[in-house]
Amino acid sequence: MDLTLAYRSLVLQVAEHPWVKGLILRRGRGLYRRYVAGETLEEALKAAEALEKEGVHAILDLLGEMVRSEEEARAFQEEILKLVRALAQKPWPRYVSLKLTQLGLDLSEELALELMRGILREAEAAGVFVRMDMEDSPRVEATLRIYEALRKEGFAGLGLVLQSYLYRTEKDLDWILPYRPNVRLVKGAYKEPKEVAFQDKRLIDAEFLHLMKRMLREGVYVAIATHDPRLIGEAKRYTEAMGIPKDRFEFQLLFGVRPEEQRRLAREGYTVRAYVPYGRFWYPYLSRRIAERPENLWLVVRSLLGG
Ligand code: FAD
Known about the structure:
The protein is of the alpha/beta class. The protein folds into 2 domains: 1-36 and 282-307, no CATH class; 40-281, TIM Barrel (Alpha-Beta Barrel), CATH 3.20.20. Helix content is 52%, strand content 14%. It contains 13 helices and 8 strands. It has helices spanning 3-15, 18-27, 29-35, 41-53, 70-88, 109-126, 140-152, 169-176, 201-217, 229-242, 259-267, 283-291, 296-304, and strands at residues 57-62, 95-98, 129-132, 158-163, 182-186, 221-225, 249-254, 272-278. An 8-stranded parallel beta barrel has the order 1-2-3-4-5-6-7-8, surrounded by 7 helices. Strand 4, helix 8 and strand 5 form a beta-alpha-beta unit. Helix 1 (3-15) runs antiparallel to helix 12 and helix 5 (70-88) runs parallel beside helix 6. The radius of gyration is 19 Å and the shape is globular. The chain starts with a helix and ends with a helix. Bound molecules: flavin-adenine dinucleotide. Flavin-adenine dinucleotide binds next to strand 4, strand 5 and strand 7.
């Protein structure tokens, strides 16, 4: 396993420890502000408006995952519907991301499907695009089944995510290709064992480029979601060389990460979206961001020291 991935695995493991979690929840507020727009919908909309002024569109994401009761899942659905209704009033592109475990996937696939259906009915009427994030490997198959079911029911404004670190992803792409999918391509953010995922950054990057190029060639709309300068550069070069127009793909980055690059890409005429998370349940999201970059450990230390 390479060092960056070993670091990620360690951070994600330590983050689950109740003592660490308690400490970060008490003292890590300064830290969460770097990656999260705020705890309320109003704060998220304000952040989205500021991005719009810079030519970057927002993907609003109500934080929450792995709910443990149907009641909780239904409460999240209600909050997401509030978001959809608020976006319906906005003049900018309307875009939401969510997680199926937020809608009860771990309780039952039928429940998650039913709650997704409710969201999509309102979202389609309001012109809001909805993307299902991809979570860890045990949930991939169910996520794809739900995607397939909803596309068969005729919901068009729905996208999903593929992760280049999983060995299975190319076959998953074959599975969803008939639905003319809108795919966000990412490297993958979870701690995955070597039985299911590449453990070497070079292989994950190579697979990312392979999948990206295949999708672009086959006419799939691709949201290229990475901060990696090499991969962004290669995406630009490839699309230019192949004559793939800028309306066949876009770049997506995370709120708070490389904001100057987000603005630069927008100025160059690319569609750019920033993933804007908000809400009270920020801990797992923040842990994954810390795990992505060894330098981020200093941010944790500084924040715990009150800096
Ligand atoms: P890396 O090789 O990790 O990073 C490249 C460079 O980017 C780093 O050297 C650094 O300069 C910068 N960088 C990367 N991460 C950070 C950070 N946290 N803080 C500061 N700088 C950083 N993963 C999923 O598993 N499922 C999803 O549904 C999903 N959705 C995503 C949506 C968007 C819009 C984005 C951008 C990412 C999403 N991810 C998702 C996360 C993704 O899988 C990666 O974990 C994450 O993007 C980091 O990988 P990278 O491609 O930026 O490359």
